[in-house]
Design goal:
This protein has about 220 residues and is of the alpha/beta class. It has 6 helices and 8 strands, in the order βαβαββαβββααβα. The protein is about 40% helix and about 20% strand. A hairpin with a 2-residue loop joins strand 3 and strand 4. Helix 1 runs parallel beside helix 6.
């Protein structure tokens, strides 16, 4: 029997059923529509740290084979990720950057696969094929304001590193998200709840469709 492509999705939000999670779930459905076996990992459920700079993955004749040597809750997840054909990382944007949990995960995911070796001007990585990947960024600010304050150059540095390590990566932005389930409980005057709700009602289905298309496209690319 032909092996199905394996696509892993990582939620870097503390919420398991809000904007980031829902967008990731839609991307998973797209991957499944393209024939993939899928898994969603909620990173906030795990106890782990970022890279500890032990360099076990960089020792000559290292036996780590591209998997971080630290043994904690993240280790079995990284072992499965090493076998994945598609990787999609979703995170809210906190003060211009992915969440701390997501950044710690990215360090542990990518550093063991990358090397300090170059050949003919190209970075050598410990992968035998291109792994299609994507970064999904969800945020409270509208798209025009996101561009005005310079988010894309900052956030897409993460996508560029993913592309360098795994061979291919895309970025999906989900802007102007509906932040609270009950706005009356919170102190704010930067925006109006009515405007946020209307934007969500008009645009969130489009965001979900874009995520679905992304998951499907990456899986089809992996199969090709």
């Amino acid at each position: 029997m032909e092996r199905k492509p394996f696509a892993m999705f990582f939620n870097g939000s503390p919420r398991k059923n809000w904007n980031t999670a829902k967008v990731l779930q839609s991307a998973m459905q797209g991957a499944e529509a393209a024939g993939a076996e899928t898994e969603l990992v909620n990173l906030y459920e795990l106890k782990f740290f970022g890279c500890k700079s032990c360099f076990a993955c960089k020792i000559k004749n290292s036996k780590t084979d591209g998997v971080c040597a630290i043994r904690d809750d993240l280790r079995p997840v990284l072992e499965r990720a090493r076998k994945a054909d598609v990787l999609v990382l979703g995170t809210p944007v906190y003060y211009s950057y992915p969440t701390g949990v997501m950044r710690s995960f990215m360090e542990r995911l990518m550093f063991p696969v990358g090397t300090y070796l170059y050949e003919n001007g190209k970075h050598i990585t410990l992968r035998s094929k291109v792994i299609p990947t994507a970064m999904i960024f969800t945020m409270n600010c509208p798209e025009d304001y996101m561009k005005k304050i310079g988010y894309p150059p900052i956030l897409e540095e993460n996508t560029k590193v993913m592309a360098d390590i795994f061979g291919y990566s895309e970025t999906l932005y989900v802007c102007n998200t509906y932040q609270f389930s009950d706005y009356s409980r919170y102190d704010f005057n930067l925006f109006r709840e009515e405007d946020k709700r209307r934007y969500r009602d008009e645009h969130f289905e489009i965001d979900l469709q874009n995520a679905f298309d992304l998951g499907k496209r990456l899986t089809e690319k992996a199969e090709a």
